[in-house]
Design a protein that fits this description.
The strands form two sheets. Strands 1, 2, 3, 4, 5 and 6 form a six-stranded parallel sheet that branches. The chain has a two-stranded antiparallel sheet with strand order 7-8. It contains eight helices and eight strands; from the N terminus they run βαβααβαβαββββααα. The protein is an alpha/beta fold. It has a single domain, classed as Rossmann fold, CATH 3.40.50. The structure holds flavin mononucleotide. Flavin mononucleotide binds next to helix 1 and strand 4.
Length: about 200
């Protein structure tokens, strides 16, 4: 059976990056709970041509590959640095090219970093509505970290690390439940297969 494909995309414009480090912490936490094919991309991977593209046809190949990976994923980890109280313009610009139907029902972990704690709710009032547009299944626990939560580029704050673990656990639980419902072996010979058989159709 193929592993679930989990794609991370963060909107950092530099490396090293706190936003990417936060997504890496989420990915590691998922990886410690389940076998998965996890790939992380950021804005550096997309290249500077993304900002000049006005249509999907005009996307440079690296950016198009990221859009395609996002659409094909079974689940997403998304993250952005806070710029002027919201996700960055380029983060939104990239998701403007994602097929509006491609993320429906897809589990998505929301994350963001900022200079301080003042904009911690950006994950709720900025990121969650965007993925609501896509009918994505946003994970209840979103993760925000500020400069003080990192030491030498590594996420060290226990409270944020606990939220990372919560979010990862919630995502893995959803993927695990879906795998059981879709696995033919789980249905074969089952006496109590009614609910699963209905859900699996
Ligand atoms: C143009 C710009 C705007 C910013 N606006 C905010 C802001 O409104 N609120 C905030 O908390 N931090 C703000 N910051 C700080 C960054 O969000 C913060 O340093 C972030 O963690 C950087 O992430 P990175 O290391 O992945 O690049 C801003 C930084 C830049 C460059």
């Amino acid at each position: 059976m193929s592993l679930p494909r989990i794609v991370g995309f963060t909107a950092n414009l530099q490396r090293p990056s706190k936003t990417r480090a936060l997504a890496e912490a989420v990915a590691e936490s998922i990886g410690s709970r389940a076998r998965a094919d996890i790939r992380l991309f950021d804005m550096v991977d997309a290249g500077t041509g993304l900002g000049a593209a006005w249509s999907r046809d005009l996307l440079p190949l690296p950016a198009r590959r990221i859009v395609e990976a996002i659409e094909a994923a079974d689940a997403l980890i998304v993250g952005s640095p806070v710029y002027k109280g919201a996700y960055t313009g380029l983060f939104k610009h990239l998701f403007d090219f994602v097929d509006p139907n491609a993320l429906a029902g897809k589990p998505v972990i929301l994350s963001a970093t900022g200079g301080g704690a003042r904009h911690a709710l950006v994950v709720e009032h900025s990121l969650r509505p965007l993925f609501g547009f896509f009918n994505a299944l946003t994970i209840p626990t979103a993760v925000y970290a500020s400069d003080a939560d990192f030491r030498d580029g590594v996420l060290v704050d226990d409270g944020v690390r606990a939220r990372v673990a919560d979010a990862a656990g919630q995502l893995v639980a959803i993927l695990g439940a879906r795998a059981q419902i879709h696995a033919p072996a789980a249905l074969a010979g089952s006496q109590a297969s009614g609910a699963f058989a209905t859900a699996g159709r």
